[in-house]
Structures are given as structure tokens and as C-alpha cells.
Amino acid sequence: MFNKLSIATYNIHKGFSSFNQRLIVHKQRDCLRGLNTDIVFLQEVVGQHAKHAARFTNWPDGSQHEFFADSVWPESVYGKNAVYKSGHHGNAILSRYPIVSWENEDISAHRFESRGLLHCEISIPKWEENLHCICVHLGLFKKGRYTQLKALKKRIKRLVPAHAPLVIAGDFNDWRETTGPTVADALDLTEVFEFTDGRAARSFPSALPILRLDRIYVRGFHIENACVHHGHPWSKTSDHAALSTNVIRR
């Protein structure tokens, strides 16, 4: 059924457990593959890190998004955001379907946090229009997030047709739950957990989620269900819980 999609978003914490105690990128990959989703939105993905590669004997060859995508998601893109002496990290999108175009837009609000919007178009068989996907990881400070949300709205209004299917997912750092009025209402988006449960999901920390930081917004879909993946084994694989949803194209 090409009209049905399964979607997940996950802040992988650069492949390390909470407090950077252990490299657990291999366990993260196993957990994500167990979800069997069509499209995955990832945040804090390491594209390159020379020091980690030298320190850990099981550090993946190549970038983490390629490591995650290997043999399961044939299409993947990576947006480099934070660049430092030993390497860089950013956002990534993995897809079972062809990614026909993509762009990473710098939305950094100040020099202390490097942030970007990774925007791609995916061709789904038998769909008349491409699916637009935007992966985000917003800043820690309210003023910066407001600026970044303005950039998100501007990009969507400029590049995404009003009738095109759209998914926006990632780490919004939105513990005050202000994203909905700022973005969703203005762009006719629905947050999947607000639809199924009445409120955004608790996703941080993964061992016992309290804060509602992560989101999945959709437009042009019926939301079938939504799930927070926490507890064993997820509590051992990142400080964020993974979120997933199944949606049906209207």
C-alpha cells in the first residue's frame, strides 16, 4: 500500500549513550531497523569525527547516516550543521523511496549553536506529487527557536505547494509547547501525538520521559497511530526516546 507510510524521528546523541558513557551506535541501528519504518528523521548525526574513529575500534566506516541506512534504506541524505576541528555533525533523512532533491539550509540563530533545516523531496510510487520532508533540530534558547521557526515557515511557504504532502519531524527542544501556535496553525499542520493523545509526546530523558521535546508534524495525511519508544532497550541507546507514526495519504 503506497498510500500508507511509517515514519520515525530519533535524536541519536551522536551514537553515544546518555552522558556519553558508551558508543552504542550499533544498538541504535538494530533498534531503528526493528521499527521497520519507511522514512527516518535523525538528529545529532556524526558525518565525520577523527578522534572518535581513532579511539573506538568499532567506530563505523564512513558517516553515521550511511551506517544506519546500509541495506535497509537505499536512499539517504545528510545536512552538515556543526563543524569543528575533528569533524562535523548534523541531521539526516533515510528513505525506502527515491530522494529526488534535497537542500540543507543554515538557520543558526547565533554563533554558539549551529542549526539547519534538511529539506528533501521523495518520490512515492503512484503519488501525483512528491512528498516533502524537513528534518529539524532547533536551538536551546527561546529567542533562537523563534527565529528558526520563522525561517521554517518562510521556507515552506516559498517551496512547498499548499496541496503537497508534508512531514516535519525532529528535536524542537520545545518543552514549553509553543511550536503548535507558532507553526502548526499557520501552516495547517497536525502534530501526530496531539491528534492521538491530545498533547505532544514526552520524549526526554528516554529512561523516564518527562519533557516534550520532539515532534512529528504532517499535512495531507490521516494519522493512524503514534508511539513513543522508551524503556528497554531504548533507554540504553540515547537520551531521547524515538517517536514513530503510521499515516495514510488523503
From TrEMBL:
<dbReference type="InterPro" id="IPR051916">
    <property type="entry name" value="GPI-anchor_lipid_remodeler"/>
</dbReference>
<keyword id="KW-0269">Exonuclease</keyword>
<keyword id="KW-0255">Endonuclease</keyword>
<keyword id="KW-0378">Hydrolase</keyword>
<dbReference type="Pfam" id="PF03372">
    <property type="entry name" value="Exo_endo_phos"/>
</dbReference>
<keyword id="KW-0540">Nuclease</keyword>
<dbReference type="GO" id="GO:0004519">
    <property type="term" value="F:endonuclease activity"/>
</dbReference>
<feature type="domain" description="Endonuclease/exonuclease/phosphatase">
    <location>
        <begin position="9"/>
        <end position="240"/>
    </location>
</feature>
<dbReference type="GO" id="GO:0016020">
    <property type="term" value="C:membrane"/>
</dbReference>
<dbReference type="GO" id="GO:0006506">
    <property type="term" value="P:GPI anchor biosynthetic process"/>
</dbReference>
<dbReference type="GO" id="GO:0004527">
    <property type="term" value="F:exonuclease activity"/>
</dbReference>
<dbReference type="InterPro" id="IPR005135">
    <property type="entry name" value="Endo/exonuclease/phosphatase"/>
</dbReference>
<dbReference type="InterPro" id="IPR036691">
    <property type="entry name" value="Endo/exonu/phosph_ase_sf"/>
</dbReference>
<protein>
    <submittedName>
        <fullName>Metal-dependent hydrolase, endonuclease/exonuclease/phosphatase family</fullName>
    </submittedName>
</protein>
